[in-house]
Design a protein that fits this description.
7 helices, six-stranded mixed sheet, 28% strand, elongated, single chain, 428 residues, alpha/beta
Length: 428
């Protein structure tokens, strides 16, 4: 077995971003740029009016005031989206609207509230310098300016800049396609059968385990914007597994993600089935609790990831290893959430005979955050649902007192680094 940090580096080190595709610039938010994307033209491409009002020459209103307004003849108008021909002569003004091209000859825009209209004339009650309320060509983006660098995530505002720059489509890394399969003869999912096989028979009432893993993983995949297909529940039967896995290998999925069947019990047949089908193992059991049972392999162009069936273990391993792995396939450079210092609110009496991941509720406005632990079984799903952190207890750590400090992966903060910095906030 290898430790958790080594497992992370092996899995992420083997992942390469997927192929490049082009998407409409307006739909690029959340995607990763596959190349430097530069502006093909100045934005705006002309002198742009920034206020509703009157365009004129600054020299004509140099002495204007509320007591002695400058009177200018209104000789035209310019509106956003309409071509402009000509402009005001000396002593004249044009009525203009926000977004319009500045008429020729004008060099300032007087806001409407600083004027008063009298017939064909406008009284300007404020002196303004040339350039006021006018956006210069290229003020938002200069032609040739890099809007987003290769490997950067495109945010909503950046997508808006791409559209404003006139880019119809942009190159991004393709998001991975995931096929989600759950295993376990005790697991019930009555609405969906297995891929390539009839639905698994229902376990007897009272022995059913409702498939919470699929619901939680599906929700997180949606949150990441990753397309996935849920192919249902498979019983722990070798032939049923073999048929479904062959079908999965024939699908368009980039990643086949399974839950359950990866430990060492007599019914844990997922790794053996994949190996018999020709998959090459990359990772097996990890020296961590919970989440030690794990399987990662490659079959030609498919990635195969096997998570444990216990919800607390499944979700811990998913958060620490699989979510970063999927983000790397999608081209993200920052794939790990921040590791923050946390202080235990009560003792944790169990010495760590291996690395431990401990579900915790982190509270407080600033670090170190107060880490609340469960009063009973830390693997209860109702407790996990309340948690926003995973504490890391290194192998060999003795029982911990209240007030002990541990590093914790903060699950309610966005990814901001390439690898978790477990060492930076280790136990004190």
């Amino acid at each position: 077995m290898i430790d958790l940090r080594r497992a992370f580096r092996v899995l992420i080190g083997a992942a390469e971003p997927l192929a490049v595709e082009r998407v409409p610039a307006a739909e690029a938010a959340g995607r990763v740029a596959a190349a430097d994307i530069t502006a093909p033209a100045d934005v705006p491409g002309f002198l742009r009016v920034m206020m509703d009002g009157y365009a004129c020459r600054a020299a004509d209103i140099a002495t204007a005031s509320a007591e002695s307004p400058a009177a200018l003849r209104v000789s035209g108008e310019a509106a956003a989206g309409r071509p402009v021909a000509g402009g005001p002569a000396p002593g004249e003004a044009w009525r203009v609207t926000t977004g319009a091209e500045l008429p020729a000859g004008a060099d300032v825009v007087v806001p409407l509230e600083q004027t008063r209209r009298q017939g064909d004339r406008v009284l300007v009650r404020q002196a303004l310098p040339a350039g006021r309320n006018v956006a210069g060509a290229g003020e938002d983006v200069r032609r040739g300016e890099c809007i987003v660098r290769k490997g950067e995530r495109i945010g909503p505002a950046t997508a808006g800049v791409l559209v404003a720059a006139g880019l119809g489509s942009v190159p991004v890394i393709r998001r991975p396609r995931v096929l989600l399969l759950c295993t376990g003869s005790e697991v019930t999912d009555p609405d969906t059968g297995a891929a390539g096989a009839p639905p698994a028979p229902e376990p007897p009432a009272g022995r059913r385990v409702h498939n919470s893993n699929a619901a939680i993983l599906a929700a997180d995949l949606r949150d990441l914007g990753i397309a996935f297909t849920y192919a249902g529940v498979l019983p722990d039967e070798p032939e049923r597994l073999r048929v479904a896995f062959r079908s999965a290998l024939a699908s368009e999925a980039d990643v086949i993600l399974t839950t359950g069947g990866v430990s060492v019990g007599p019914y844990d047949r997922v790794p053996r089935t994949w190996l018999d089908l020709g998959a090459r193992r990359l990772l097996g059991r990890i020296d961590v609790k919970p989440g030690g049972p794990f399987f990662a392999a490659r079959h030609r162009d498919k990635w195969i990831i096997g998570l444990p069936g216990s919800p607390a273990a499944c979700l811990a391993t998913y958060q620490v290893l699989v979510r970063p792995f999927l983000l790397r396939l999608a081209g993200h450079r920052c794939i790990a959430r921040p590791v923050v210092p946390a202080v235990l609110s009560r003792p944790f009496p169990k010495p760590a005979d291996r690395d431990r991941l401990l579900w915790a509720r982190l509270e407080g406005a600033v670090p170190p955050y107060r880490a609340h632990l469960p009063t009973g079984d830390e693997g209860r799903l109702t407790w996990v649902a309340r948690c926003n952190g995973l504490l890391w207890i290194p192998k060999g750590t003795p029982a911990l007192k209240a007030g002990s400090r541990l590093p914790g992966l903060r699950l309610d903060l966005p990814e901001d680094r390439e690898e978790p910095d477990w060492e930076g906030t280790g136990p004190l």
